[in-house]
Every structure is written in structure tokens, then in C-alpha cells.
Amino acid sequence: MKSIYLLKQSLIIWKRSDIVTLLITVVLLSSCTGLTESPYTFVSPGNYYKSEAELESALNSVYADFRDYASDYKTLMTLELLTEHAMPAHASKDGVRNFNCWQGVNQATTYNIQIWDSGYELINRCNVVLGRGDGVEMSDEKRNQIYGQARFFRSYTMFTLLRLYGGLAIPESYTSGLSGLEIPRKTVDETYDYIIKDLEYCINNLPTRSQWGSSAYYKVSKGAAQALLGDVYMTRGYMDNYNKTYLQEAKKHLGEVISSGEYELLSDFRSLWYWFVEEASKNTKESLLEVQYGATQGSALHCNFGINATDESLGGKMFQRSGVSHKDYLSYQDNDMRKQCFLTEFTITGTNTRRYFEPDYKGFSGKGEGKWPSSTPGNMKYYDRTKSCYETGVSKANFIVIRYADVLLNYAEVENCLNGPTADAYDKLNAVHTRSVSSPIKSGLSKEVFDDAIYQERTWELIGEGQLYFDELRTDRLGKAVYEYKTYMYENGYYNCLQLQFVPQKTFLWKIPQTSLDSNPALVQNQDNISDPRYPLK
């Protein structure tokens, strides 16, 4: 196997006494998951992790890897294109048309967008911290805080992979030799149990946001772990025939975030985004966890979800892989503050030439007076329009991973599922809704209609943030939504929208990348998915 061959080749430059410590640093399961060797892996933990500062350095590498993992544009783009909330751009790069029409879903190469490999690389970094910390002289409180942060990132990563692939191969430690690298997959329930155990540890050992203090708001907190655990229990409950025991646990943990007083909705939705308030948008009281970007480590998301234009008024160079669906953009009320977070017009710097989006042209560019250069509006959640971004191409806009609005909407959904549209459920939903729209949600809705209202609110609030695919899958909305809208787009000639090839069911799982299967005989591939018979294709 290639990765073992590379490892053996590297061993010849080491003395025999150094071999064991070198092996410890190899990326976890490099032979059984197809992971990529990274430069950091050739530092020996046995020789290096001796002090608290050195263990903190290892934890910093976890944060750095999480930044790349959580805000990877291919993952975010793919998750949106697979729903009815996005449509492909003019360019056909990165398979945007094929994802949008669900082509080749049972091929092991289709979803090889590195999320499996990068996920296990991140898990390994977490395991190195957890495996070496006991040998470091430091206070138990500090050690437990470091462990809590590592276990949070491990659980976050596993939860993402679980929802995409099903039961996971769970490595208990980092690599310590060439034997025992073949790890079979656990069941879905065993994987959930492992994730829950991690998050319970995090809740018991991590400081709250206020305890971390303003200089460390970027760190994982108890509230982030509670919110994630609530999401885990909610998803598990929905996928287990709406299991009330799991849903009660979800409500408990989400409710504890709400009652903690640590978080609140900002009064103006635009204050969450760098485009409008720049540095003041970062690590606010609405943010439970966000990926940090700055002048030296910038984001490229503004490129992939921008428009096909370069202009000083827009900040850094932009292009577009995918964009918000026309249906969703047009669904906002004109007075909804969130509608102002889509780029639909601009004036070219130094001229009177205006470019503006015209939905009637169905994604074709250059058809009207304004000659809008892209198939859809741009999503300002990723943009930095400062002059420094224009000059360097580096966006300093953070990416919010978990925010309080999501917690409130999750709570409202679980409460409605358990007890119907109670006053408590209305309160949480309207807190999000009336932040951006003056009139509250209509009272007296049925349980089913109220649930639809929650999902619509999630769309308006969270579009472009990589969450709606998971929402639709667990609520069994995905197949119907994909079938109806993508068929409509194709039959009405929207740009780059191909005929739908497959309709997903609630049980849909991605295929494990073929490279990982080839290198690990212990991995078992997911069974072929069957198109939902409720929505026959033409």
C-alpha cells in the first residue's frame, strides 16, 4: 500500500531508537483511510510534547485544521447544490452541474471531495493531543480544558461524517506502529454513543464563553458543546423514527444554552457579517463558534460564492461556483433585513456603469441592460469589501459555524415535534423571525404547518451556511424538494441546470471514497442508494 511504502521509505533516515516515536506521528490510519501525510506529522510527539506550551501548540494545530475542514468551499458548495437552495454558476468546474442534478450518486468517486480524508486527519490531530497530554506536567483543570477542546473537534468531525456516510471506523488513539491499522466500521448507534460521550466530557470540563473572556471568545466553550449535543440528539431522534427520549435530551441541552444568558441575537442581522461592520462582526454574542480569519490567514470563500467580477467596490477578486437559487431569493419579503445580504447590483468603480441581477433571465448573463455577470445573486456572508482585500485577495471575514439563531430554531422544532406549536415554540421562532421582519409568525398554526414555518425560517436565516442539506435529510424533505424544484429548473431552461438523475430518500448515504477502500480491507462500502419511488423520474 502506497502510504505504508512512503512510511517505510522515511524510516531509513532514522536511527532504530527513533522509529517508534516517528510512527506515533504518522497521520492516523494513513493506510486504511487514504489520509495525506502532512509536514506536522514528522515531529515526534514522544520527544516534543513535554510541556504545557508544547501541548497548547498541538491544540493550535487542531484549531488550524478545523478551520480548513469546517469552511472548505467544496463541502459547503456541494451540500447546497444537492438541495433546492442553490443552482450552478456559469462555470462547470468542480462538478457543479452533476451535483445539482444528482448524477452518479452510487459511484465511489463522485463524492471524493476530501471531506472523508480531511476529517480523519483532523481526528488524528485530536487524538495526538489526547494521547500525549497525560505525560505533560500541568494542572488537571488545564489538561481537562485542552482535552475538552480536542474532544469537541473530534465529535464535530465525526457527527459531520456520520450524517454523510453512516457508521464510522473509530480510532481510539493515534498511530503507534504498523500493525492494527485496519479498523472496521462501528454501527450508527455505536458512533452516536461515542460522539455523545465526547460532548458530555466537553460540557463538564470546558469554560463558558464569559469564563474564557474576550481575548479567548474564539475558543470552544461549554455552550458550543451543549448546542452541538442538542443537534446530535435531535438528528438521532429524527432518524430513529422521532424517538422521544432523544428529542427530550435535545430539548434539554438546547434549553440550557438558551437559559445560560451567555448568548443573544444581535438586533440587526447585518451586524453578523464583515461586509457591513467589518471587525465588529467577529465573535459576537450571537456566535457560539466561528472559524477565525485575518490578514495573514484569509478566507477564499468570497471567491467561490461571489460573482464573476473584479471591482474595487466588491473587495477581493470574485468568481462563482454556485449561488442561491432564484426561488429562495425571491421568497424573501422586500422588507426582510436578510434580503439585503445578497449582492444584486453594483456600480463599476470610477464609472456610472451599473450591473444588476435580473431573475427573469434564468441565470443567463449579459442579457439585460445591467449585464449581470453571474447566474445568481452573491451571498455577502462571505465578503470583505475593504481595500486591503481588493489589493491582496485575502478576505478577513470569519465563518460562523454555530450561532444562536440556529439554537433557537432547533429548540422550536424539537418543542413542536414533542408538544405541538406551544407558546414556547412560537417564542423561539418569532425571536429569529421578528429580528429581520416586523410582523410575527401567524398564530394558531397546526403542528405540521408550524413545522413548515420553522423550516422556511431556517432557509431564510441559514442559506449558504452548509446546514440545510442536513435539515432536509433528517426531516425527509430532501427528496420532494429536490424533485420539484430541480425538475422545474430543467424544464424551464435555467442556465446549467441538467435533468434530475436521482431522488434521495431519508436513508441516503454518500459512498466512501474508492482510495480509502482500496487501502483498507476492513472498510465496508455503503450499499447502493435507491431513488425515491414516491417521485418517479421521467
Automatic annotation (TrEMBL):
<dbReference type="Pfam" id="PF07980">
    <property type="entry name" value="SusD_RagB"/>
</dbReference>
<protein>
    <submittedName>
        <fullName>RagB/SusD family nutrient uptake outer membrane protein</fullName>
    </submittedName>
</protein>
<dbReference type="InterPro" id="IPR011990">
    <property type="entry name" value="TPR-like_helical_dom_sf"/>
</dbReference>
<comment type="similarity">
    <text>Belongs to the SusD family.</text>
</comment>
<dbReference type="GO" id="GO:0009279">
    <property type="term" value="C:cell outer membrane"/>
</dbReference>
<keyword id="KW-0472">Membrane</keyword>
<dbReference type="InterPro" id="IPR012944">
    <property type="entry name" value="SusD_RagB_dom"/>
</dbReference>
<dbReference type="InterPro" id="IPR033985">
    <property type="entry name" value="SusD-like_N"/>
</dbReference>
<dbReference type="Pfam" id="PF14322">
    <property type="entry name" value="SusD-like_3"/>
</dbReference>
<keyword id="KW-0732">Signal</keyword>
<keyword id="KW-0998">Cell outer membrane</keyword>
<feature type="domain" description="RagB/SusD">
    <location>
        <begin position="368"/>
        <end position="526"/>
    </location>
</feature>
<feature type="domain" description="SusD-like N-terminal">
    <location>
        <begin position="49"/>
        <end position="233"/>
    </location>
</feature>
